[in-house]
Write a structure and sequence with these properties.
By secondary structure, the chain is α+β, with helices and mostly antiparallel strands. The chain has seven helices and five strands. Strands 1-2-3-4-5 form a five-stranded antiparallel beta sheet. The chain is globular.
Amino acid sequence: MTGTGRRAALGALLGLAGLAATPARSATIVEVAEPIVAFNNTLVAIMKAGKVTPFLQRYNMLAPELERTFDLNTILQACVGPRWSALMADDQTTLETAFTAFTVATWVANFDEYNGQGFEVSPSLRAVGNDQIVEVVIQRKSGDSKKIDYVMRQEGSWRAVDVLLDGTISRVAVQRSDFRSLISGDNVSALIASLRRKVSDLSGGTMHT
């Protein structure tokens, strides 16, 4: 489907045809939420594939959409903090690879079973500085729900730079705290090793980065 077609389909999905531009630089819910809706659709696909489908196969299904949706480099730099600029280029590249694999593996492991879940995207945006918040509610067949907010930033295209679990818990803040104890000066070898172990654990030992 072309970009124009995706935007039209998204507008129909959200019932937002003719929606006036929201504040904050005329951003509309259709354009900002487009990558999130596509990402949600892929999450449903890997959930329906389920645990009977090899982890690596589900990983490969999700990875391209996740990397389109999230600005992983910006997220990683925010998690590492000021020490990032002191790292050697090779260490940055190795850490980026390990972090990407860890991020994809985490989503695959957490969305591994389909029980009629549905993703509801809020028809409005919430501005926080220059960023926009796309609110998503995951509705379960049991009636329970879980809220995930995506912090979207525009640098060319709109991409997520943080996830707020239950609308308040910053994934970046949690990871920054976790990473801090594994970084010694400009040495990130312990962090890289930790991320690689977690990928192996999340995949049931079937993936090694």
